[in-house]
Amino acid sequence: MKLAYLGLSLPQPTPTMIYELTTLTTAAAMLKDVTTTLNSVAAECPAELVAAWSTEAGRVNDVLLLRRFDENKLPSGATEFRPGVKHWLSSVLPMTQDVQIEHFRSVPYLPEPSPGALGALVEMRSYIYRPGMQEELLATWKEPLIKRAQVSPMPLVMYSINARALRFIHLYAYQDYTQRLQIRAGEVAKGTWPPPGGKARWLNQENALLTPLAFSPLR
Questions:
Q1: pTM, 2 dp
Q2: Cα gap 139→121, rounded to integer Å
Q3: Lower Cβ count inside 10 Å, N or C end of the chain?
């Protein structure tokens, strides 16, 4: 869509998307029940559901839901868990031990994720950076991430916007664990990965391997 102004046709600004990552820690032996219930209520998700995963390695019995919305347009429906207020996840809450909700923006130099098949295994690498390092983080990772995306699909790279510490998440898609090992070993051997200077910048790092759920748009 274009806007007319003083006889000129101007492009409409691209909306800035907010990514919401919800992590459900399921109760013991309830993972199958949670995923089955989520499959039945996924269509009720306010805002766009981008992906849904369960943990294959890392902290077990987690389910991760990724959705996005225009930062100028809050999604319809309840966005907070409050007694007596129906939420699209209300039916699974009794089967969980904990719920964590975080908000992110994607890095500006990689494409936004689109629905489709990318790989049966997704690696989620999470770095905690020292506060106040957002501009340096985005600048120092730009070239390495663009080159890395040419080797294997990167569905999304995003940084937190509502946390005390700066959380930086990379998502990598692989066909299987063997392909992951081969690609990472090849990049390390070439000296292109990991980017230099990390030890001076981040406080800690976590890693998880995820598999897409049946209703996940991104697979």
A1: 0.87
A2: 28
A3: N
